[in-house]
Amino acid sequence: MATDSNGREPAALPVRTLGRSGVPVTALGFGAAAVAGLYQDVGEEAAAAAVETAWDEGVRYFDTAPHYGLGLAERRLGTVLRSKPRDAFTLSTKVGRLLEPYDGGGDDLANGFAVPATHRRRWDFSADGVHRSLEASLTRLGLDRVDLVLLHDPDDHERQAFEEAYPALEDLRAQGVVRAIGAGMNRTRMLTRFLTDTDVDAVLCAGRYTLLEQGALQALLPAAEGAGKSVIVGGVFNSGLLADPAPGATYDYTAAPDDILRRAVRMREVTEAHGVPLRAAALRFPFGHPAVASVLVGARSAAQVRDAAQQYRRPVPGGVWEALRRQDLLRDRVPIPEGDRS
Fold first, then answer.
1. Measured distance CA(6)–CA(3) in Å, rounded
2. Kind of pairing between the strands at 15-17 and 24-26
3. 3-class DSSP string for the chain
4. Are the C-beta atoms of 285 and 211 separated by less than 8 Å?
5. Half-sphere exposure of 73 toward its Cβ, with a 13 Å CA cutoff?
6. How far is CA 246 from the centre of its chain?
């Protein structure tokens, strides 16, 4: 087994397989958007330390995308992962946005990233766009392959995504260029269609299966379970609110409405009354559904990564979930993690 930077064996994390692909993912995954300057600048050393710490904590699934920091996430992730045994980790990236050079100056904060605006994004879900995007991603990563490729946010490009981009991904998988394919979005309707109408291995659902909201439970998660496919859950803290429900906290990338903030505060009161931080409950909650393979956590520092790993490993007594139900903060039909039942 590989060792961490201090020569210690990394702590083991549960490993699951994406659908029938044979591609393994650790239950806790590392989402690279934050180390690419999401909302605020992150230095090279801090970014590298976050990725190295994830490795030291046993994380072996890493997710990125060209969109994140105009390619910066891929470059920074690749810099660290190139020093690791390639067969020891699973890597996913995304297609659908091509990066084109731009010399107009300014920054990318309008798109959420505190980086110089060196490129412009251009939507492209054509077959050629898929191939060009993946090739550029591999160049930025400095690696010869990724394991999972996801169609990224095809909300307004549904027809082209299904008729052109998806078949291109299916061909890449058939050729052995990638091992697994899927789609990643913040909305559930189209993700459900990918699960029912195509042969994807997994989907990445961001923000729609959390302690605060379970929209994915209506159709997406049952579809995945019925088809033997996997769901990767992103946005488990609803863009920050469940990490620290306080005035000014963000929910779905904007200021949290008062009623939702109050609900999150009540949840924190319940979990802390049982000696459990709200972050721990939020991280463990999605695993109550059998279709969930991994939860992605975005962290911008080594300290945040260590905290996420610590909170994930913290036992959550069944009494926490029952108390949330009694206070109408969690519906009775929502599944809870099997190992945490009282």
1. 8
2. antiparallel
3. CCCCCCCCCCCCCCEEECCCCCCEEECEEEECCHHHCECCCCCHHHHHHHHHHHHHCCCCEEECCCCCCCCHHHHHHHHHHCCCCHHHCEEEEEECEEEEECCCCCEEHHHCEEEECCEEEEECCCHHHHHHHHHHHHHHHCCCCCCEEEEECCCCCHHHHHHHHHHHHHHHHHCCCCCEEEEEECCCHHHHHHHHHCCCCEEEEECCCCCCCCHHHCCHHHHHHHHCCEEEEECCCHHHCCCCCCCCCEECCEECCHHHHHHHHHHHHHHHHCCCCHHHHHHHHHHHCCCEEEEEEECCCHHHHHHHHHHHHCCCCHHHHHHHHHCCCCCCCCCCCHHHCC
4. yes
5. 27
6. 23
Give residue 254's pLDDT: 86
Name the CA dihedral angle for 72, 77, 83, 87, rounded to a multiple of 10 degrees: -130
Instruction: Enter the tokens of residue 103.
Output: 């010399």
pLDDT along the chain (342 residues), means of 10: 53 93 98 96 98 98 98 98 98 98 96 97 98 98 98 98 98 98 97 98 97 96 98 95 92 90 97 97 97 97 97 95 96 84 46
Residue with tokens 């009354």: 273
**Which residue numbers are catalytic?**
68
Instruction: Give the CA-trace dihedral at 291, 77, 83, 49, to 10 degrees.
Output: -100
The pLDDT of residue 252 is 86
pLDDT at 2: 45
Q: What is the pLDDT of residue 258?
A: 94
The tokens describing 294, both together, are 């991994």
Query: Distance between CA 254 and CA 107 in Å, rounded?
Result: 20
**169 contact partners, CB below 8 Å, separation of at least 6:** 95, 130, 149, 151, 178, 181
What pLDDT is stored for residue 338 in this prediction?
74
Question: Token pair of 44, please?
Answer: 């090279």
Read off the amino acid at residue 289. Answer: H
